[in-house]
Fold this sequence. Notes:
By secondary structure, the protein is of the alpha+beta class. 27% of the residues lie in helices and 35% in strands. It contains 2 helices and 4 strands. The protein has helices at residues 53-62, 64-74, and strands at 13-18, 24-29, 33-40, 45-52. Helix 1 (53-62) packs across helix 2 (64-74).
Amino acid sequence: MSRVCELTGKKAMVGNNVSHAMNKTKRKFDANLIKKRFYIPEEDKWVTLKISTSALKNINKLGISAVMKKAVENGFYKK
């Protein structure tokens, strides 16, 4: 499975390692992802999601139902 947030669509970015001599080599910045279980009371079931930590902060602030609804509207999560 790819390392992509299921709610926000965040994924790895590409950049450079830069040495003291300014030599540049390619590297990858992975998204900060965690695997977490959530209970959705409207559907009365548990859902396991691979989400970024910034998405987890949004869930704590807005609630899982609101964040999942927004993710469905943006096309990142399919019911």
